[in-house]
Amino acid sequence: MGRGRYPARLQVEPPPPEVAARYLLIWPSHEVYASPESFPPISSPGLFGDGRPLEIDIGCATGELAIALAEARPGANYLGVDITLKPLYKAVETAAGRGLPNVTFLQSDMLLAYGRIPAGALRAAYVHFPAPLLRPRHRKARLVAPALLQQMQRALVPGGTLSFMTDQPDLYAELLRLLPAAPGLRLRDPAEHELALSDLLKSHYHRRWEAQGRPIIRAELEKC
Predict the structure, then answer these.
(1) Can you give the pLDDT at residue 8?
(2) In this structure, is the dihedral angle defined by the CA atoms of residues 56, 57, 63 and 68, taken in order, positive or negative?
(3) Is residue 40 part of a domain?
(4) Overall number of domains in the chain
(5) Domain harbouring 158, CATH code
(6) How far is CA 18 from CA 14, 26, 77, in A?
């Protein structure tokens, strides 16, 4: 099932150069593949120049979640990553308008960018409402794939969280199917969940699917 044409309908201009320099990184896939060492580490020292905890929103679209978390938790840094550039223009516009010092955005293929995350660099990662891409021809582009769990059990600090949400039961079933191959992650009981589902943290797609009456399926995985 498609995610709709929301990003394609956005009417937003590229940010001014000075704003882009502060809030937007663009990593062309062919360059990341050929010379990954030429890109900074995805870590707080590498991206923000400090040692605060780092949390990453993978597939962030227009950045609502990363921005809300950055406002609510000024003691941590936040990175939103998306493979599509246009929604990130909106994310950058919002972050710059609010003057947030602890959030930035990256346009990149996360499957290539995983290798720039040092071990133990992340306090949390969010994969909320990814495109299902359940057809076999889309397999290589899926976010819910062995690489996600393998990389997160390496990149999260002990006790760190991978937060997953979807409206697609098949996608949740795929996550559970893959989990045994990542013994460094455990599925938390819902009573242990760290993140409260408040309106502050609901993305465009969360609100959209909830309004349509779709069941919202949630899981939190913890780095053992």
Answers:
(1) 53
(2) negative
(3) yes
(4) 1
(5) 3.40.50.150
(6) 11, 14, 20
